[in-house]
């Protein structure tokens, strides 16, 4: 059996509960992506704070937070791009599944 036939058989086996589970998983992924972006923003500032204490300076915390904001912006752009691609794939999968269900009835 070829891979193309196998993947289409797997898609046909989805039920409405599976669709709901896919949507819930998407929401969970969105939360984890948001937390990741927040961590990207905070960690460099915290590291700068500890480096300031270590070296006895006062500017590294500011440098750390500025770097964190830059990292968070790029991280957010990347996460949004991935989320958009995933949403498009899920929409296409749902449409294929609904059309197959209508064909069977």
Structural account:
The chain is mostly helical. The chain has one domain (16-100). The protein has helices spanning 3-12, 16-55, 60-104.
Number of structural units classed as domains: 1
Number of E strands: 0
User: Structural class of the helices, strands and pairings?
Assistant: mainly alpha
Radius of gyration: 22 Å
The unreliable regions are 1-12
- State mean pLDDT (0 to 100 scale): 81
Q: State the shape.
A: rod-shaped
Summarize the main sheet: none
**Helix coverage percent of residues?**
over 70%
Helix and strand string, N-terminal first? HHH
What's the helix count?
3
**N- to C-terminal separation?**
27 Å
> Hey, roughly how much beta strand do the residues contain?
under 5%
Key words describing this protein structure:
mainly alpha; single chain; 105 residues; disordered N terminus; 0% strand
Write the layout of secondary structure elements.
Elements: H1 3-12, H2 16-55, H3 60-104
Helix pairs in contact: 2-3
């Amino acid at each position: 059996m070829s891979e193309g036939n196998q993947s289409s058989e797997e898609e046909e086996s989805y039920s409405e509960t599976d669709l709901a589970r896919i949507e819930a998983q998407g929401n969970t992924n969105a939360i984890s992506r948001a937390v990741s972006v927040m961590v990207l923003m905070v960690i460099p500032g915290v590291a700068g704070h500890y480096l300031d204490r270590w070296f006895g300076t006062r500017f590294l915390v500011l440098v750390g937070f500025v770097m964190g904001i830059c990292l968070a912006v790029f991280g957010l752009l990347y996460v949004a791009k991935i989320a958009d691609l995933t949403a498009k794939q899920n929409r296409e999968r749902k449409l294929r599944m609904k059309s197959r269900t209508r064909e069977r009835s």
